[in-house]
Amino acid sequence: MEPDDTIWAIRHRAGEWDASDIDQLIDLSKSHPDDPYLLDVLGDLSRVVKHPSLPDDFAFRCYTQAVAADPSYSAAHLSLGYWHDTMGNLPDAKNHFLLAIASGSDEIARVPLASVLAQLGDRTSAYVELDKCVDSEDLDVSRMRTEIENGQHDPLDIDLIECEPGG
User: Fold this and answer.
1) Residue 19 — φ and ψ, nearest 5°?
2) Which of 49, 87, 88, 97 has the fewest CB atoms within 10 Å, i.e. is most exposed?
3) CA distance 167 to 31
4) Greater pLDDT, 77 or 151
5) Which domain of life is it from (predicted)?
6) Residues 76-122: pLDDT tens digits?
């Protein structure tokens, strides 16, 4: 079975995932070790499903391997940005969100980049990133503006599995 078929089947059981889904993707990654989409989704799934035998940094390893397989794969840079943000590694988060934007994830990476910039104390640059969003009335953009104005700069809660195939 090709990775995309398996990933599609797993993703469409949203909320009903378990450790066997991770095992299935790990097995698939053995025959497709350089598939950035597979590695990115495997990392995402490992962050939302408990798996007793995986190390704490398993998602990070998946995302890093995805970027190594395709340095321009924007979804993996986006995932690494979120991972670093939640780990408190803000300069690395900023770097990966910028790489995601440079690789084509323009809109989707600007809101979390703004959050990181605000956490780093650069509210002006955070607002500049939000101003670059095409739909300035978008709920995520509006929410981020409000959070920055109110000084709320906690790492974002995200649904990682929502990444689109291929980026």
Assistant:
1) -60, -30
2) 88
3) 21
4) 77
5) Bacteria
6) 999 999 999 999 999 999 999 999 999 988 788 999 999 999 999 99
Q: What is the pTM of this model?
A: 0.84
d(CA 127, CA 99): 19
Q: Which amino acid is at 36?
A: P
167 located within any domain: no
What gap in Å lies between CA 62 and CA 42, rounded to an integer? 7
CATH of the domain at 93: 1.25.40.10
Instruction: Indicate the DSSP class of residue 159.
Output: -
Helices (H) and strands (E) in the chain, counts: 9, 0
Instruction: Output the six-digit token pair for 136.
Output: 């300035």
Name the phi and psi angles at 145, rounded to 5: -60, -45
In terms of residue numbers, what domain contains 83?
A: 3-162
Gap between the Cα atoms of 84 and 94, Å rounded: 9
In sequence order, which residues have a C-beta less than 8 Å from that of residue 122 and are 6 or more positions away? none
